[in-house]
Amino acid sequence: MASNYDVTKAEIEAISGVNPLKCMRCGRCTATCPSFDNMEYHPHQFVAMVERGEIEKLMESGSIYKCMSCMACIERCPRQVQPAKLVEAIRLAVVRKQGGNHLIPDNVPALLDPDLPQQALVSAYRKFTK
User: Could you tell me the sign of the dihedral formed by the alpha carbons of 126, 3, 94, 116, in that order?
Assistant: First the structure.
């Protein structure tokens, strides 16, 4: 992966809106994760790694693509740490780091399909800007 900038812990926290310091390592998020067996790093480990600033290691892990975004970890967390939001923030950082994926507002009208749901457009714009 070509590096055009280093992703920091602070950036991941800002993108996700999650404070990993709130995690008390109870493991409820991991216990409820349906992808547990397929992940190199489990939800509670993911949170701990973000807390320690091991962002590059997470960005290189296949675990970010094994997360089903089912939000079960969020439902089970007694401290509302929201591990799934950290996973999504890492995925987003990977997309942004790849470069060439930026969506320029002036180019959007030419890309629109009348059958495209507005949610897809907003999601794409959010992911591919900055």
Answer: positive
